[in-house]
Design a protein that fits this description.
Length: about 375
């Protein structure tokens, strides 16, 4: 995992959005499989303004690691977790009247303000106050004796689509909500809507802050990373642990669904679907060995995969197979794998299992290898 690439992508994002907008670096889901602690430490050094996580536990993990910048809980929380958020200086998102009431009740018991961001549902239908709920919520917020509304945000449903009318529709709803907020004398100083797709494709969504996730890790949601100068930060590699020569018409893998069509040299690599090798890649997917493509051979197992290296010269046990990344002049991207599996790169990256050691390169790699077994 290349921390210099993540730093470079942050610079690309700042330039793309004019240089003056603040950046909430989204590091939820263990920084999309890249390792939240290492990524957040480097991005804090590079001047990221805040971090976004999904869960209280993720925010507390950053605090334990020494991260001092603001941390916004983008997802749900339980009332019992509010004292943990206060203790950890985490900023909750208020996304319903129930969560607002919980925050205000906790505030009454601890006799101090609990700053929060208000989430507006502009069309996602997942979390957020609807326009009908907004008025009563604002009445309660405006009646507080001290400012508590630090920010307002929404989630774009189609920000990765360049010509998508739904984004414009969402912005109209969001702008209307912002007007209602200001009419009550409330002045949130952090307004954000742009996810990676929005910041790359829709300048009208930038507001005060942008909220990149996938773009930080070098991938554009619509698969056009190179056009924006983003650098993929992650490579997924595994060792070849066994080589064998088999005859034509030899069944391989579970169910014997794959049969060789010629005498073949088969390599078993120490990575399976628990390690991020999606089961669907067995049909048409490839790894890179010695700079050449080698197709999968047989169904992907939990711990191992097999590839056909018949056409690759000089392969030996212990050699590396690149599942995602570049070897020589050949590259397999997370987008390549996602398209083959009928999914998105977010899922591919997040499914790299916790037992896979993360090896960090670049400035800030003070702990170059992170493993769950340490």
């Amino acid at each position: 995992m290349d921390l210099d690439a993540v730093a470079s992508n942050l610079k690309v994002i700042r330039v793309r959005t004019g240089g003056s907008r603040r950046v909430i670096a989204v590091v939820k889901a263990d920084a999309y499989g890249h390792g939240a602690i290492a990524v957040a430490r480097r991005l804090e050094k590079e001047g990221a303004d805040a971090f976004g996580v999904a869960m209280v536990e993720e925010g507390l993990e950053l605090r334990r690691a020494g991260i001092t910048r603001p941390v916004l809980i983008l997802g749900a929380f339980m009332p019992a977790q509010i004292p943990q958020m206060v203790e950890g200086a985490l900023t909750p998102s208020v996304y319903s009247m129930t969560t607002l009431n919980s925050i205000l009740e906790a505030r009454r018991h601890i006799s101090r303000a609990i700053p929060f961001h208000l989430k507006i549902d502009t069309g996602m239908g997942r979390l957020g106050l609807t326009p009908a709920e907004l008025g009563p919520a604002l009445d309660r917020i405006a009646a507080l004796p001290e400012p508590a509304l630090d920010g307002v945000f929404t989630t774009l449903t189609s920000g990765d689509q360049e010509n998508e009318t739904q984004t414009a529709d969402q912005l109209r709803v969001f702008s209307s909500a912002l007007e209602a907020i200001r009419r009550r004398g409330l002045q949130p100083h952090q307004i954000h809507a742009a996810n990676s797709g929005g910041l790359l494709l829709h300048p009208s969504t930038w507001f005060d802050m942008v909220r990149p996730g996938l773009a930080l890790y070098g991938l554009a949601p619509a698969g056009t990373s190179e056009a924006f100068g983003l650098k993929p930060a992650l490579s997924l590699r595994a060792r070849i642990v066994l080589l064998k020569t088999v005859n034509a018409d030899t069944p391989l893998g579970y169910g014997g669904a794959f049969r060789t069509i010629r005498p073949s040299r088969i390599a078993t690599i120490a990575a399976g679907y628990d390690d991020g090798v999606n089961r669907l890649v067995h049909d048409g997917g490839e790894v890179i060995v010695h700079g050449k493509r080698a197709p999968f051979a047989g169904r992907i197992s939990m711990d191992f995969s097999m590839v056909d290296v018949t056409d690759v010269q000089g392969v030996a046990e212990g050699d590396e197979a690149t599942i995602i990344g570049t070897d020589g002049d050949t590259t397999v991207t997370a987008w390549d794998t996602a398209r083959l599996c009928g999914t998105i790169p977010y899922e591919i990256l997040c499914h790299i299992g916790a037992r896979v050691p993360r090896v960090y390169l670049g400035e800030g790699a003070t702990r170059p290898i992170r493993s769950r077994f340490e």
